[in-house]
């Protein structure tokens, strides 16, 4: 038999993305189809099966070459038992997906949550390639993170490692309440949601900013305004960057990872964000813990989930 | 051959402590002799060799049963190469101690720094027995920590994991400079040094406290005064506890360890410290990250170094 291949499934609320990877984390072929979450669990599972068979058929590979199928799920998963506990956006609950897919496809199946597989994807085939220890944070609606130690996803004792968004970093006097119930979580300032909130607040306060002309402010509007020199927007981006830098400094002294990988929509702000994060990080981290440590943008974008899901076989 | 035994060496500036452990982390026999650091590296190495031979001779075990010799060193170590890079209190620098001891003793040798081996000792045979993931912090002159993941010491990319004492936790307005050069490190408030400094400051400010009658304030005086109801002392202990709780909350969201083990002189304060640390931790940690997580005192005291050094063989 020739080269082994690994199939990664990114199971989201709208689309199921399927990719074929070789054993070095290279994405060789992709396929995408609708999740059809509204039609129920049976349809979703049927779709996964069909797309996986489809991608191999379309490719130059043989079914026999498939060494395993990994899936990243937007929701809570029981990694050990291979069960989707709750994936609200996909309409799934208490689904023993590993058992079902293994029976239908005749191949070993592994699952994990989307933040962890995205981190593994970047660590295996993206910005962390060749790195043993890295922390991959995703700044989107919330702030999530995956911790990769010794090249593998680190789960923690109850599976809740990497909840970086809920590190309390904002001092009490400035803190607002987070969705988790605590005050001052990183997520309240360094997520897209946090940035939009700060912008709306500034406009509501009547501050002088070009953002007041935007009908429905998105995070990208704030970055664009900051790049144009809008002082209010710059202050908001710096605040998001400051607390992210502070949180990464706290992680650095404890874990001493080699690379922090920052992905998600907010990371698209680019240098205006990264330069400030790096500067705050250097300022707050003792030299010995910061030496040789870099903070870099994610490389794989939306492909990270497929690559990482495939990586569940070679890297865990 | 009968049961294997493991020898743990705790190499400190004043004394070399040697212990024999079985493969379950039980300390069966101990021996202690002077380091004689002032007489130079040769004498120190000779002493280690002699004490190791001595303890086996004194015990009921045979030399053949010794499966390995581990050493915990108060200083910087190159774990991979088995070299003591710098141990100022022991007067050692750039010493390839593994090679030397393996040649002299004819047994495999491993080394690590004292914070890591103490953490491993607690994880293997102490307060973390049976636990996969724990963080062991030592509150002494400074604040150090060892991170045990999957039952093994986690070193980080450059060997600087566990520098918990240098997490920046004190807000700018109250922060003082730490020995590392940064401001507001945990070590400035939650170490014995920090507690003594806060007590001296309070006395110098003329605050009403029984501590003003103590000639040279030690951390224990502050705990004793707090237990007697001295309000200034209670405030100081609460402040040390608050920032420790805050730092542990930051670690909890990232690593989700099962147990935090707190050792060192400051931990002897007992309930007055632990109750406050636990209360702050619960307040600052999202429920999902705090669930099932405990904060407990270290159990092995000064024996942790010997047990953990022996554990370098079975647990790494």
From TrEMBL, chains A, B:
GO molecular function, one term: glucokinase activity
A GO BP entry: glycolytic process
Listed InterPro entries: ATPase_NBD, ROK, ROK_cs, ROK_glcA
Highest taxon above the source species: Bacteria
Class of the enzyme per the UniProt entry, highest EC level: transferase
PROSITE patterns named in the record: ROK (PS01125)
GO cellular component: cytoplasm
Pfam families (UniProt xref): ROK
EC number: 2.7.1.2
UniProt entry keywords in alphabetical sequence: ATP-binding, Kinase, Nucleotide-binding, Transferase
Family per record: Belongs to the ROK (NagC/XylR) family.
NCBIfam families: ROK_glcA_fam (TIGR00744)
PANTHER family per UniProt: BIFUNCTIONAL UDP-N-ACETYLGLUCOSAMINE 2-EPIMERASE_N-ACETYLMANNOSAMINE KINASE, ROK (REPRESSOR, ORF, KINASE) FAMILY
Protein name (database record): Glucokinase
